[in-house]
Amino acid sequence: MNYWPYQKLIVWQKAMDLTQETYRLVKFLPAEERHALSDQMRRAAVSVPSNIAEGHGRHTEKEFKQFLSIAKGSVFELETQFLICTKTQMLTQEQIEKALLLCDEVGKMLSKMID
User: Fold this and answer.
1) Could you tell me if 111 and 72 are in contact, meaning their C-beta atoms sit under 8 angstroms apart?
2) Do 85 and 22 form a contact (C-beta atoms < 8 A)?
3) Is 31 part of a structural domain of the chain?
4) What CATH number should be reported for the domain holding residue 12?
5) Is the pTM of this model over 0.90?
6) Nearest Cα to Cα of residue 15 among 52, 58, 43
7) Is 90 among the domain residues?
8) How many folded domains does the chain comprise?
9) pLDDT, tens digit (0-9, with 9 covering 90-100), for 2-53
10) Which residues, at least 6 apart from 82, have a Cβ–Cβ distance to it below 8 Å?
11) Is residue 88 domain-resident?
12) Which end of the chain, C or N, has fewer beta carbons within 10 A?
């Protein structure tokens, strides 16, 4: 497999792990949420590595940081959605623990890259 430079970024790799974990977890949501909250969660999760990759392909550092900022916003959106899942008892705290740790890790890495 040939790698593009963005694929070597640890933050992109962790964001891909977060996306994979999100896809795994939304399968546990009730059927009535499969076309609402789960779709929103998948879109937010996909947005994180996608914006990292898109920003990396831009020509300026300013544009790259703008896309990193969008990715960071998607991390916070996704984290909130996981918390909603526990508040509404659709998922347990134990189920979302790995996802929350990944959200925290990716968010911190993005913050360091943006500053």
Assistant:
1) yes
2) no
3) no
4) 1.20.1440.60
5) yes
6) 52
7) yes
8) 1
9) 557 999 999 999 999 999 999 999 999 999 887 899 999 999 999 999 999 9
10) 25, 41, 91, 96, 99, 100, 103
11) yes
12) N
Range of the domain at 106: 7-25+41-114
Q: Between helices 10-26 and 61-87, what is the axis angle to 10°?
A: 30
Q: What is the DSSP secondary-structure string of 50-107?
A: HHHHHHHTSSSHHHHHHHHHHHHHHHHHHHHHHHHHHHTTSS-HHHHHHHHHHHHHHH
Q: Using an 8 Å Cβ cutoff, are 12 and 97 in contact?
A: no
**Dihedral sign from CA coordinates of 35, 104, 50, 115:** positive
User: Which two structure tokens, joined as six digits, stand for 61?
Assistant: 């550092």
What's the pLDDT at 96? 98
Report if residue 1 sits inside a domain. Answer: no
CB atoms within 10 A of CB 69: 16
Express each pLDDT in 59-80 by its tens digit: 899 999 999 999 999 999 999 9
